[in-house]
Design brief:
Length: 100
Amino acid sequence: MIEALRLGRTVVDVPCTIEIEHTWESLHAHVELEGLTVEPGDEVHVHGDEIVVPFGERLKLRRTATVTRASAPERLWVRMTGDFEFMELLEFSFSSGEKL
């Protein structure tokens, strides 16, 4: 059903910074998009080769990301049904650590 709502989507290429840590203290990957805020229903694709960080190391890279903005009906659908999928996100954090 969501495929039928893809009217009015826009695609934007933006630079991004990727920070990855694979240490005893933390295992995480964060992507910071420059000049763009991701909203419900938007899709982000980071370009480039696979990134492998050996244990005990941290890595910071610059890449390009393609953001596909959700249309208004798609954004509304995601907001209405997103609470039902909330339980799947409890084990993961998709925040940058910044206060919202």
